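We both want to read discrete structure tokens more fluently, so let's practise on a single case. Once you have written the record down, we can walk along the chain together.
***
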Amino acid sequence: MYLSGTSRRNTMTWRRTVVFFFCLLLTVLCGLSRGADSSQTLSKSGSSGGEVRLIQNRLRNWGYYLGTADGVYGQQTKSAVLAFQRKNGLAADGIAGAATLKAMGLYDAGASRYSRNEFNLLARLISAEAKSEPYAAQVAVGAVVLNRMRHPSFPDTAGGIVYQRGAFASIGDGRFDKPVAESCYRAAQDAMNGWDPSGGAVFFYREGEGGANMDTVMAEIGRLVFFQ
């Protein structure tokens, strides 16, 4: 059958349109597939970043991981995750999904109440105030901030607590602006997950730099004294 030039052009235009929408549909479906996977998978082989570093540090503390916490989810990290999963009766797939992270104590219901900005701010304050102190003291400093957020006499946001005038000496003396120590990210996470070595304190001071009534002291860790 003979088609005129106009008909041939219309046919070609129609075919191009069909091909375009077909490709567009495939792109959308692939994006949805990746989105669904990312909602189920938080860290796996090829991932990198702060979350991977937290996983590595936690597994290293428990003896599963012997490498450095470089934030890269390589074969050594996967093997450590697999060993942890087998030990704890989890699906052994080498992927740090929601169930595995919860078993590690990294992202439970308590931690999910706080934003990523609050996490980073808390880690920075812990580093500024206590990076040279024992790990439990670092967690306790983070717990003090969170305890204040729940206390009626203090602001109810991490930013409000940290930047409250006169609250922390490190804000004004330059320590707050220095690089954050790696352990302080872990300490912030542990504090957000509910560990409170301070015993519920809302204040702390360094020995030789302040004081408190002994009746109110809740804990003494390293050179830091925590009190109500």
Notes: The radius of gyration is 26 Å. The chain has nine helices and three strands. Strands lie at 203-206, 217-221, 224-227. Residues 5-40 form the longest helix (36 residues).
